[in-house]
Fold Biotin synthase.
Amino acid sequence: MATKHDWTKEEILEIYNKPLMELLYEAATIHRQHHDPNTVQVSTLLSIKTGGCPEDCGYCPQAARYHTDLEGNDLMSVNQVKAQALRAKAAGSSRVCMGAAWRNVKDGDEFDDVLEMVRTINKLEMEVCCTLGMLTENQAQRLAEAGLYAYNHNLDTSEDYYKEVISTRGFDDRLKTIDNVRKTNVTVCSGGIIGMGESAEDRAGMLVALSTLNPQPESVPINALVPVEGTPMEEQEPVSIWEMVRMVATARIVMPETQVRLSAGRTQMSREGQAMCFFAGANSIFAGDKLLTTPNPDINEDMEMFKALGLNPQKAFEKKEQPKSIDAEHSQFQNLGEKPKWSRPGHKIERNLQAQEKRKTKA
Ligand code: SF4
């Protein structure tokens, strides 16, 4: 059956609110039609540049304007990244996702270093993903040429609720970046977070935005908010496992080919809860004891869980062939020194402003 790209919020809400057993059965059936249910892709997330971010994302401890205990660091070196990638590979990861706390990519030495990191990891026969903020078409092309396998750029939430979470970057620019990535052969990874105070309608709205992209993202991370002290969302109640299972199952049904990833918030979930998410169609996880800055289960614990559930880690390039890495001296694309004007909506978000004020009093 051809993939449906015209999902409406009402249709998605109807799926999300089905009796749970019916929802699970439907999602598991679709999952089996499109994927091997015993294979789960394992990615390692590496924060190559931590903290000091100029944005005001209400969930994020890396935003410089909030007071968190986060220790920041400048961009890692290519050798440091290579060593971490080798460790991740030995532990069973097929993909390394490198995250930098930037608003957008800037042409220059640091981006050149990131391109070298991409070439290095691709040559280790691992899938390489980056999450570096907003991106122009030329920058996306340069990453593709270096051998990037995936680019992550989350929509975070529905377009409506986005205005309650972030005021420094616009939803349309997120879509524009995804579109720039789509002009290359790099796959798209885009998802969001639940538990930020949004309604079920907003969750459905986010899934509308993702599922109506054509093609749909190859990978969709579903995060449960990990509230961090000092951030505007520090007091948010954790989401229940049922909400997580519903979200995963609904994502699976509306995006049958996509790899649905259980991302942040896994430490708060029991093994039984995670098993239910795998049954509902999750077929990817982040491994490693940290997810950028928040805690994550240890890789050994994950491998024990895989053993108990009879799951196998997916091999690298099983879904799509390995891209070629073109060395810097043979590049067809230049550093254009672009300075694009990404939008800055600048509306007031009360809880973000309050968290910012608190920082000033603490300073
Ligand atoms: S989510 Fe990304 S863009 Fe937003 S504050 Fe954190 S690091 Fe910056």
